[in-house]
Amino acid sequence: MLFVALRAALIFFVPIEMTSDASWYFNRAISIASGEGYSEAGYPTAYWPVGYPGFLGILFYLFGQDKLVGQIANLVMAAVSFLLQLELTRRIFRSEAAARLSVLLLTLYPNHAAYTSFILTEIYFTFLLLLGVYLYITRSHWLWVWICGIVFGLAALTKPQVVFLPGLLVLFHVFSKERRDKLRHHFIKGFAIYLAMAMVLVPWAVRNTMVFGEFVLISTNGGATLLTGNNPTASGGYEENDPLVAQRNFSVQDQVESDRHARKLATDWIRANPMRFVELIPLKIWHLWARNGEAEWAYQAGYQYYEQYRNAFRTVRWINQIFYALLLVGSFAAAFLLMKHRDKVAWPWALIGYCLMIYLTLISIVFSGQPRFHFPVMPWVIMYAAWAAVMITAGQPRERYGQQGIRI
User: Residue 255 domain-assigned?
Assistant: First the structure.
């Protein structure tokens, strides 16, 4: 109740206008709901993945073209994510105390609460990620396997990098203590999941090919994303004002060629400046993980009374940063505790979160580091921190499930 109440209060009592990326998603969803398709300025687009604006467009078609529709959807998905995180912590870390502490920390996490008001991909993608992992490790009936594949397909249609996650989950079975004769079943299960993902992704790739005259699997912004993180004035974050970035000459009408040109500019710069590319790696990691509370920027741009309550926003931002830092410390502590107490968790499933964190970091090393990119893995960071807190203060989990309750 507290989780929902805090987020609903922000939606209804701190109203904001959608700006920047949120405005873009909002307008693309309106064009879909209005029957104009996924378009910008009257031209078909695939600049950003269609997953979230497509989902939002369906909601706008059914319930009206209002930002409140998207915000309520965020609230519902966040609440379901709360329950998914609770159950995943129970099953993976085998501790009721850790599970309850985990969702308490999520409830009080300011940056997570703030995102509920924004028409952005973060809440939607995090929900799909948690749901996909939950279905994979808890459901074995083939109907659920197909649903799991569809969920991962929708996630990939939102952030393409998730396409490798089911393969990682299958590999976990290889390193688990299961009998080798079961591996064939798991490989078949993985194949079925990827087949279901293809059922989601292929129609969109066909649409893009018909619209642009050449193969585009999901989106046309890969080159631009690479270029904004790798250019003469890049400092590890997102840099769009560099003269080299301006040379991509983006236009909606010719976005495929623009993306191709941007990719060439970026790769040429990297080849010409390999040492600078290496020097940017720690800076990209820093930009990805060091700061948190970026939701304040959206309030600064879209909340009309921001200046009046500026000190309050800044105070919450600092509290959030300290809270976030403690969560990271807790997740690092959990890594050491897992080495010693792996028998107390569902192994190797307890490593899923760390694998996601490492994978996200590797992607940012190539492209750029931005605080909002680590949003989808924060539930896992919180799970680790909660489990570490329980282990440190009690020596071992206070509650242990019977074998039937922890089977994965």
Answer: no
Tokens 């107390």 appear where? Answer: 344
Q: ∠183-189-192 over CA atoms, to 5°? A: 145
Quick one: pLDDT band at residue 399, thresholds 50, 70, 90? very low
188 Cβ neighbours under 8 A, 6+ residues apart: none
| 229 domain residue, yes or no | no
Separation in Å, CA 83 to CA 86, 146, 155, 347: 5, 22, 19, 22
Please say whether the beta carbons of 187 and 170 come within 8 A.
yes
Helices (H), 34-66: 51-63
Q: Is the pLDDT of residue 404 over 60?
A: no
Burial of 366 (0-12, 13-18, 19+ CB in 10 A): middle
Instruction: Name the pTM for this structure.
Output: 0.92
Is residue 270 within 8 Å of residue 277, measured between CB atoms? yes
246-271 pLDDT, tens digit each: 888 888 888 899 999 999 999 999 99
DSSP symbol at 42: T
Taking the C-alpha atoms of residue 213 and residue 87, their distance in angstroms, rounded to an integer, is 46
Nearest to 327 by CA among 397, 374, 396, 394: 374
For residue 395, what pLDDT is reported?
A: 54
The DSSP letter of residue 235 is -
> Who's near 23: CB < 8 A, 6+ residues apart?
119
- Please report which residue ranges of 120-182 form alpha helices under DSSP H: 121-138, 142-156, 165-175
Has residue 266 been placed in a domain?
Answer: no
pLDDT score for 246: 87
Percent residues over pLDDT 90 in the chain: 77
- Tell whether the model's pLDDT for residue 202 goes beyond 90: yes
Residue 351 lies in a domain: yes
Residue with tokens 């290889």: 174
Range of the domain at 156: 2-219+273-397
| CB neighbour class for 273 (10 Å; exposed up to 12, middle 13-18, buried from 19) | middle
Contacts of 247 (CB under 8 A, 6+ apart): 261, 265
The single-letter code of the amino acid at 248 is: R
Q: Write out the two tokens for 202.
A: 């292929």
Contact at 8 Å (CB) between 244 and 265?
yes
Say what the alpha-carbon torsion angle 298, 302, 303, 306 is, to the nearest 10 degrees.
Answer: 70
Amino acid at 168: L
Question: Looking at the 3D structure of the chain, how many domains does it have?
Answer: 1
